[in-house]
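Field reference: sequence -> structure
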Amino acid sequence: MKRCVLLALGVMLAALPLPAQPQGFSCVGAEKLEDNVFSIPFPRGSATIAEAARSPLAAAIEAALAEADRNICILGHAGQEGGATTSIQLAAQRARAVTNALAERGLAAERLRSEARSAQFSPSVRAAEPPSRTVTIVLMPPP
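Structure field:
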């Protein structure tokens, strides 16, 4: 009986739509923008927002709250911090941590899009930390 109930519950849960990111905008080309770009550093191998990230994160939040019509791309980066799969997972975890921090501070979820990027797409000149250990927050141009 328990097994049937668990199986039925699993089937019902599988039928529910998964929460998805908003589809209203794209982050293609975000790494080429130079204005309103914030680099959030992370310690090697970590997806936890550290004290060094507090100031640039606060600046990004202030800018995003001031310009409510602009969408925000959160691009997670990880370089040689494990195998290729591990690095992409770490990049995604970093992007998710920053996205959650932005949402917790009042930014609407439909304005946020987080993506994992490989290190070669990182803005190497602007980053305070090596681009492979950052999350780049980009305020996209107004629509």
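Note: The two ends are 55 Å apart (CA to CA).
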